[in-house]
Amino acid sequence: MALLNIIQPDNPILRKKAVRVTTFTDKKFQKLIDDMVETMIAAPGVGLAAPQVAVSQRLIVVRLPDATEEDREEYGDKAGVVYAVANPKIIKASKEKVKGVEGCLSLPGLLGDVERHEMVVVTGQDRHGKEFRIKAEGWLARVFQHEIDHLDGVLFTDRTDDVWEPKDEDEPEPQG
Ligand code: ZN
Asked: Is residue 173 part of a domain?
């Protein structure tokens, strides 16, 4: 496995609409998933989309946190679980929206208060092309919406005017 370079907005790939994944069997695709997971964990991040590593394909990885006691209580045996989703699509979203703080690995040194659906149902394909669906609520729903936005070239700073540079003493926020 290898760590991948996370690109910044000066690279136009970050703003491109990514194309659907159609081939699941080749080694390159399987390695891309493994490398993205490794890169996300090392960053550290809670999610990563393929365009962030300069691959314009509809693929995201998301990880449920397990760093604190609270995380483990909230997510139980799902804490630390990694989802790799190809061709993710939001098929249902709650009317209710919630604001929350987001950071992005492609926009280091920036945080923003972003409004997201409280609940989303996401369909997609796993690393072998098998279709599945996930119902995500709260924090996990936010990460999925952030990562799926990346596949359409959308950054969190497009969705809010409330953006700031955190001070060194601030608690680090999850990045995706
Ligand atoms: Zn991001």
From this structure: no
- At 110, the amino acid letter reads L
Question: How many domains does the chain contain in total?
Answer: 1
- What values do phi and psi take at 52, rounded to 5? -70, -20
Give the residue numbers annotated as catalytic, written as ranges. 147
pLDDT at 68: 84
Query: Is there a domain that residue 114 lies in?
Result: yes
Determine the average pLDDT of the residues in 154-173. Answer: 88
Q: Tell whether 7 is covered by a domain.
A: no
Q: Ligand 1 centroid to 7 CA: how many Å?
A: 11
CB atoms within 10 A of CB 139: 18
Closest CA to 134 of 98, 86, 96, 101: 86
State in Å: Cα 114 to ligand 1 middle.
12
> What values do phi and psi take at 43, rounded to 5?
-55, -50
